Amino acid sequence: MPVEGPKMAIVTALLPVPLSVYVFAFAVIFFPRLVLTRHFWSDEQRREFFQLEVTKALISGEQLLSTFGSPSPSDENRLKPIDKLDTSEMLLLHGMHSMYPLPGAKRRIEKRMEVLRALDNLMPSAIDGFNERQLIFNCYIRKIDIGKKSESEMRDSLRQYVKFTSRMPNNVYLYASPLFKQK
User: Fold this and answer.
1) Among positive and negative, which fits the CA dihedral 7, 8, 10, 11?
2) Do the Cβ atoms of 27 and 60 come closer than 8 Å?
3) Residues 6 or more apart whose Cβ sits within 8 Å of residue 16
4) Whether 55 and 107 share a structural domain
5) Do residues 80 and 68 lie in contact, with contact meaning Cβ atoms separated by under 8 Å?
6) In terms of C-beta distances under 8 Å and separation of at least 24 residues, what long-range contacts does 109-116 make, across chains too?
7) Which of 57, 55, 53 is nearest to 1 (CA)?
8) Same domain, 115 and 26
9) Is residue 127 domain-shared with residue 102, that is, in the same domain?
10) Rounded mean pLDDT of 1-29?
11) Which of 50, 141, 160, 168 could form a disulfide with 173 if both were Cys (CB 3.0 to 4.6 A apart)?
12) Does residue 182 have a pLDDT over 70?
């Protein structure tokens, strides 16, 4: 997997230089693999990146749940709603949802929950039609640990996740991924 830090540092340093925009435009046109690295990732590289991001998110989620005393999904009153979280818990929540703690992030997390709920309602009828790339992406957006699972195992994980989260209230659904992993 390509390391993007040095590339970003070079771009950040050179972009303010006059006429450097033309150099980058030239590079995008004639050397896209050097500039647009994620666009050209193989399925294996994409899966590796998604797994790394899910692992980071689940670590934040487990740390967040440990601040509440490692509750189970049935302990609804121990899982705080988003507006009752303190600053350190909010930072862990942002990490769990792979979001930067910017202004308006609380609303973005709430919208993300709404969208995932809507997708979860459509999911049972669509899971069987997913190819491996779609399965990996759907596991990634829900922060489901896929490790080295096969397509059928990912389908089963998605089905179990949808069943697990189907009756969760919003304050519990906020923590669905680490709770699902604990299950």
Assistant:
1) positive
2) no
3) none
4) yes
5) yes
6) 109/82, 109/174, 110/82, 113/170, 113/173, 113/174, 116/141, 116/142, 116/173
7) 53
8) no
9) yes
10) 73
11) 168
12) yes
Query: What confidence tier does 1 reach under pLDDT thresholds 50, 70, 90?
Result: very low
Lowest mean pLDDT among 27-31, 86-90, 163-167: 27-31
Question: Do 11 and 92 have their domain in common?
Answer: no
What six digits make up the tokens of 3? 């390391």
Distance CA 15, CA 11 (A): 6
Angle, in degrees to the nearest 10, between helices 132-141 and 43-67: 20
- The verdict on 90 and 109 lying in the same domain is yes
Structural domain span for residue 142: 42-182
Report, as an integer, the average pLDDT of 138-166.
92
The Cα 86–Cα 101 span in angstroms is 13
The span from the CA of 53 to the CA of 31, in Å, is: 27
33 Cβ contact partners less than 8 Å away, ≥ 6 residues apart: 40
Q: What is the pLDDT of residue 169?
A: 85
What separation in angstroms does the CA of 68 have from each of 49, 80, 170?
A: 29, 8, 17
Lowest mean pLDDT among 11-25, 42-56, 129-143: 11-25
Identity (one letter) of the amino acid at 153? E
